[in-house]
Design a protein that fits this description.
Length: 273
């Protein structure tokens, strides 16, 4: 329904993959390694976040001019694509039949791999444009918000790594000051120990959830497990922030890992269920 916006987002992000390393390499040559990696990653990350925001806003606006109708799955068609190494991959794209307000039957094709848990004849929600009922979209997470989630992932992580390395570059340029290390009080040590034990339990439980999650949905099992692992990493970040706190550079790695597992877990839960 908004192919032009997606093409624009792909173009912006693609250019960032060329300009980011080039400008980052120049910054690294003129300044140092940390500046180079930080600036390059930030350029790519900001482009990804811009693409996600642009598609998300356009999709949100376009939904206001649509109507929802229950369609039915009528077919799966094979789609072939080649990767950068020339290898061919095959995916099955769902085809859904829907009837708009004008009473005419129409077909809409979803993204490859979508509705894999559905069978022929199953009900599928479709949103079509009121102004032009021929423009429609399967109303599941993958087709509605998959591009937003994908670009958000590709934007979030380079941005976080860019901020991390930029912070390292800034700190490297400052005069060295040795912070006064204060020993933890018995109470602080006790709470930190309890928090660390709890975070470890949550972290390990995430792996168990991946294998023991009830039901046959691999997507939900992986999603629940990854999100639990992410919660454990973020809990470690919170515990290590208790005074006297661990150095921020070390703590930030826990935050990046936690957010990463949460993001991938949520995507798996919504798209592979």
């Amino acid at each position: 329904m908004d192919e032009e916006t997606i093409q624009h987002a792909v173009l912006v992000f693609g250019l960032s993959l060329l300009l980011g390393p080039a400008i980052g390499g120049l910054a690294g040559w003129l300044k140092n390694f940390f500046w180079g990696v930080g600036i390059g990653a930030l350029l790519i990350g900001c482009a990804g976040l811009y693409a996600a925001a642009t598609i998300g806003w356009q999709r949100y606006q376009s939904i206001e001019g649509t109507a929802s109708v229950q369609g039915s799955l009528v077919d799966f068609v094979e789609e072939r694509s080649k990767d950068s190494n020339g290898r061919t991959t095959v995916s099955r794209a769902p085809v859904v039949e829907y009837v708009a307000a004008d009473g005419q039957k129409r077909l809409v094709k979803g993204l490859g791999g979508g509705l894999s848990d559905k069978e022929w004849g199953d009900a599928v929600e479709v949103r079509y444009s009121i102004a032009d009922p021929a423009h429609a979209l399967i109303a599941d997470f993958q087709n509605m918000w998959g591009p937003v989630w994908g670009f958000g992932i590709f934007g979030l992580f380079p941005t976080m790594f860019g901020l991390f390395f930029t912070g390292m570059a800034i700190n490297e340029g400052r005069p060295v000051k040795r912070p006064v290390q204060r020993a933890a009080t018995p109470t602080q040590q006790r709470w930190r120990t309890r928090g660390t034990v709890m975070a470890n339990l949550v972290f390990v439980a995430g792996f168990a959830v991946c294998f023991l999650y009830p039901g046959e949905s691999m997507g939900k099992a992986l999603g629940a497990g990854f999100m639990t692992i992410g919660a454990g990493a973020l809990l470690h970040f919170a515990v290590q922030s208790f005074p006297p706190a661990m150095a921020f550079e070390s703590r930030s790695i826990l935050a990046i890992v936690g957010l990463g597992f949460l993001a991938f877990g949520y995507g798996a839960w919504m798209m592979l269920a």
